[in-house]
Amino acid sequence: MLSKEISNSLGEREFRVLVVHLILSKETEKAIDLVCKRFGARVPSLAIGIPKGHKKALAVYEINSNSIKFADKDSFFDPFVVLHELYHCLRSSSGKHRGTEKNADRFAGSYIREYNSFLSSKKSKVQFSPTGSEGRRRKSRL
Ligand SMILES: [Zn+2]
């Protein structure tokens, strides 16, 4: 379990990587909880099933009930969809305005970009690390 103290002590980049990682690990509730705590927003309730009139949407944020409704499990575990709707939730807590679609996409995109650059930096580290083969060679020599 991640405590509030740990998530608050993370830098902005690490925090974004963690949030995307959690959603991809099917821990959407935990990710939303962390973001809301960090931004001091009310945690929205989550449900699968889109209300009538929004059938084409992947997800919808409802300000009156402070809830995010997802079309299906795919969108529930899609970091871009989750963070886009979460942006509307964060923006709505302080007033009536839900934030623009453009800014919601930008918010979600900034998290995904941070996660992708973390992944590629990690990949190159794994590639150049000799630890695995070195360890095995040393063992066979003994
Ligand atoms: Zn939107």
Description:
- The chain has helices at residues 4-9, 12-24, 28-39, 73-76, 79-93, 101-128, 131-141, and strands at residues 45-48, 59-62, 67-70.
- α3 runs parallel beside α5 (79-93).
- The protein has a three-stranded mixed β-sheet.
- The protein is built from seven helices and three strands, in the order αααβββαααα.
- By secondary structure, the chain is mainly α.
- Residues 84, 88, 101, 104 line the site of zinc ion (ZN).
Provide the spatial order of strands within the biggest beta sheet: 1-3-2
- Name the ligand types: zinc ion
- SSE-based structural type: mainly alpha
Q: Give the count of helical stretches.
A: 7
Q: The CATH topology is what?
A: Zincin-like
What is the N-to-C succession of helices and strands? HHHEEEHHHH
Total domain count:
1
**Strand content of the residues, in percent?**
5-15%
- The tally of beta strands, per DSSP, is 3
Spans of 5+ residues with little confidence (pLDDT < 50)?
131-142
- Ends distance: 41 Å
Tell me which CATH architecture applies here. Answer: 2-Layer Sandwich
CATH class: Alpha Beta
Q: Which percent bin holds the helix content?
A: 55-70%
Mean pLDDT: 85
Compute the CA-based radius of gyration: 19 Å
Question: Mind describing the biggest β-sheet?
Answer: 3 strands, mixed
* Principal-axis shape: globular
